Amino acid sequence: MDMKRMHEYSKVWADPPEKSICSTRVSRISSNALAENVSDRLIVEQALTVMVDRVGSFTIMCTPSDIEALAVGFVFSEGMIDGIDDVLALTTKKQLPNVVGIQIYDPSRIAIRRNLIVASSCGMCGVRNIDKMLTDIPPSPRSLEISGDSVIRLARELRSMQPAFRATGGSHAAGLFNADGEIITFGEDIGRHSALDKAIGKCLLSRKSMRGCGAVLSGRASFEMVAKAARAGLEAIVAVSAPSSFAIEAAHRWNITLCGFVRSQRANIYTHPERIYACQEKKNVSQTEEVDPWK
To answer: What is the tens place of the pLDDT at every residue in 25-46?
Structure first.
């Protein structure tokens, strides 16, 4: 992808689901102990190699859709670039469908050269000093304000945008939303970290501003997801599932509003609730039972 095409990038949503879904035969049993041979659909997981010129190669286990956005979002989240202007070239080849080449500005400033395999469950695999990262990434600004109703609606809308999840039940999703509560970019992947990298990468490639935006996540909010949001300057995270203790600590330090268990008609706000308006406080409720996140 040359610079002109990068400037015209408009793939806000996802590649066709055919790239994300495959079929297999399974033996399915039921309570009557009878087995039947049926076709089942699976989420695709493949190795994507991101080759960063004069830095190293990174093999990401992911769903092979929106690979350009994933590559750009990954190098951004890893701190190799500060914005899309630091990407000098982005190349793919038909004969190498799962390889993306990136040339970045001033690769000499990247301290670590490495050939790394990034599992679909890995979020910040290249980080060696978390305390330094907590200090180096500045707190997010405070310009976003959003209603409690919008927080709950965003989680519901995210699910409606997941064709691979509807077909397989095996994917995560992430979307970036603006102050109007509109999802402006979306990513779906077997890995929740890669789903967020895809959404961030699409914003960068299409030169959409992430200022005053937040992220909505289909799963839990771990420290790595908060770190990616902080790196992008996002001000809020809306997660369908639970946050971790360190995610809450990091969100507090980075001035990010962290919402968890956003489902049905309620949500927990763990940090910086001042960005959420028109919410009436109710009595404290303990969240202990196992709950289907989409009910």
So the answer is: 999 998 877 889 999 999 999 9
